[in-house]
Structure formats: structure tokens, C-alpha cells
Amino acid sequence: MVKENLIKIDQEDKESIASSGFEFEESKRMATFFQQDDEPFLFHSLLEGVDILPMGELLNRFPQFYKLKGEAFKMLKKTLPEDINKGYFIRVKKNTVLELPIQACLFLKKANFKQKVHNLVVVEEGAKVYLITGCTASKSANEGFHLGISEFFIERGAYLNFTMIHSWKEDITVRPLSVALLEEGAHFVSNYVCLRPVKDIVMSPVAILKGEDAKASFNSLILGYKFSNQDIGSKAILRANKTQVEIVSRVVSLGGCITSRGYIKAEAKYVKGHLECRGLIINEKGRIYAVPELETEFRDVDLTHEAAIGKISKEEVEYLCARGMSFQEAQSIIVRGFMDVNILGLPSLLQQEIKNLEDKILNKGL
Q1: Rounded to an integer, what distance in angstroms lies between the CA atom of residue 238 and that of residue 235?
Q2: Which of helix, strand or coil describes residue 54?
Q3: Domain count, the chain
Q4: How far apart (Å, rounded) are the C-alpha atoms in residues 10 and 257?
Q5: Widest Cα–Cα separation across the chain
Q6: 240 and 162 in one domain?
Q7: Domain that holds residue 212
Q8: 130, 301, 321, 334 — which has fewest CB within 10 A?
């Protein structure tokens, strides 16, 4: 697939796509995948150690990986539709270490379109990769729907830092489903960033740590706009000894309803898990529900949680306003400080990209 397909995209849509972290120039990316509605527009890799292609071509190109479809969800005793063959397949080969991230974008263009994708990511033994996936919609995609099924297989000693940026609009309904399987010594970081309006979203990604010394972390930065409903959680199942997980979320309600969930289950001894949720209410019509859950049948575990919900300090706003800022500017600065991108565990280059996106949105005022 050739890059000329992206050139045909109009400027307004390009701005929406860029707001999801997608870089058109690709100067800071090692591989790229782009899908509009149900059509893959572009997919290519700049490195021999990375395979990237549409799921529809997986059976013909890599039949040995085709059998992995649905395998992660079987561990949750769930059966997924077999007829979804859109989405992306990414394999990072053994001991491949990427200096720059891989990018993927799933874009909604048509009105009333139901986009259903199945993504499969395999990070082989000893490999290290950053993957940034953006999901967004054109202004023409009225009343759109997105179902994203993702499976991650992280082999022994491998590292995957997966960042998902949602940049939807007020009439889009979203239902992501994902499971990550971690082998011995594997490390999985799952970042979720949602700074634009969305009609309704329900998601609860799962990590199953089935190998000793595996580690996982989930980090979320969420803005909830008026009339939006966001039920967003993370789950971790510590199935092997000496596994660890941390779930951290920062949520700000501008009038929307946000449910922030976290669930950790210890199925082995000598494991550690921590949940942390912090929320800010900006508009009194907004709501935030913090739902932390810890479960174990073992004594030799260390599971903790903390949650705090409040409002912006009047004194902080007055302090900034006294130095010449408007109320909206002061409020935006405080929210930016609260929505700290440092929790995402990204390299400096990618962290700055996310921060720039955040600043661009919040600088417009809340």
C-alpha cells in the first residue's frame, strides 16, 4: 500500500487524525498502519525486525500466527466473532529493540458506519517496542460505532509499551476489548488517553500475568465532557508468583459521567498490586465513580488501593488570576498539571508528543 493514499485525505480530516497521535511524515516512526472505515489505506515497516499488515492477509502471509486469533480471550472463557478480519497484525521479532515507535490509526469517515476490527500484536522474546494507536473520526462520521478487539502476546523477557489515544466526537459509541498475555519476565505498559468528547464508551482491558516476574501497568488520562458517558477500567490477573501490577488513573469531569474501575486478582503467592484513582470535578453536573476491587485467596500477597475525588482549589485559581490570567486560563493550567503525562512511562520523544496534544486541547479552554 502506498503513502499517496494518505495525501488524498482532506485537511480537516488530517487535523482530526493528527489529534490521535498519528504522524503523517513518519519521520519519528518505525512502521505505520492506517485504516479508514474497513479499508486499509497504508501499511509498511522500515525495519526487517517488524512485520505489519492487515488482519485480512494474516492467513496467507503468516498462517502460524493466524491460530492465535481469539486465544487470549479463551483464557477468559470468552468466544469472539470469527468473521472480523479487519484491523492490524504486528510482530516484533526476537531481540529486536526499536528506538522509534510503531504507529497505527483506525479512522471513521462514513456516517452511521460500524467499524469492527481485530488487532493482533506479538512481541517475541527479548524484543522491546513502543506502539501508539490512535482512534478518531471525521466530522462526517455521524452516529458512528467502533468495536476494537485487541490481543497482545508478550513473550519471555519482552517489553511492550502500548499507548491508545482516543480522539472521538460527541456522537460516537465505542466498545474496545483487549487481553494481554505475559510470559516470564515480560513487561506490559498500557496507556489510555481520552481528551476529546465521546458519546458512550465502555472498556476494561485485561492483563494476564502467567509467567513469573512479569510486570504490568495501566495508566489513564481522561476528560469527561457534558453528556458523555465513560465507563473505563483495567483488570489484572496475577497468575504466577512474583508478578506485579499497578493501575493509575487521572480523571476530570467537565460535566460528563465517568466511572473509573480497577480490578486486581491474585491467583498466586508473593505478588504485588496497587490501584490509584484521582478525580477532579470541574462542573457540578458531572459525576465520577471510583470503583477499586481487590481479590485473593492467599495470605502472602500485597494488594493496596487509594482513591480521591475533589475540586480545583479556589486559592489556586485566585493565585493565577492575580498574575493576569483569566479564569479559564488558570483552570486549564491546573488541569494540565493534574493530567500529568509522566505517569505514562514513555520515552522523552513520545512523552513530548502526548504533552503537545494535551496542551493543544486544554489551551482552548475548558
Answers
A1: 10
A2: strand
A3: 2
A4: 33
A5: 65
A6: yes
A7: 4-312
A8: 321
pTM reported for the whole predicted model: 0.94
Residues 108 and 161 in one domain: yes
> CA dist 344 to 163, 211, 250, Å?
8, 23, 11
Tens digits of per-residue pLDDT, 197-230?
A: 999 999 999 999 999 999 999 999 999 999 999 9
Residue closest to 354 by CA, chosen among 189, 150, 168, 191: 191
Phi-psi region of 271 (alpha: psi -120 to 50; beta: other; left: phi over 0): beta
Give the C-alpha separation, 330 to 365, whole Å. 9
Which residue, among 191, 250, 193, 233, has the nearest Cα to 216 in the 3D structure? 191
Q: Which helix (H) or strand (E) holds 135?
A: strand 128-137
Residues 274 and 244 in one domain: yes
Cell readout for 205 is 482491558
C-alpha cell belonging to residue 24: 503523517
Q: Which three cell numbers stand for residue 78?
A: 470468552
pLDDT in tens, 145-162: 999 999 999 999 999 999
pLDDT band for 364, please (50, 70, 90 cuts): low
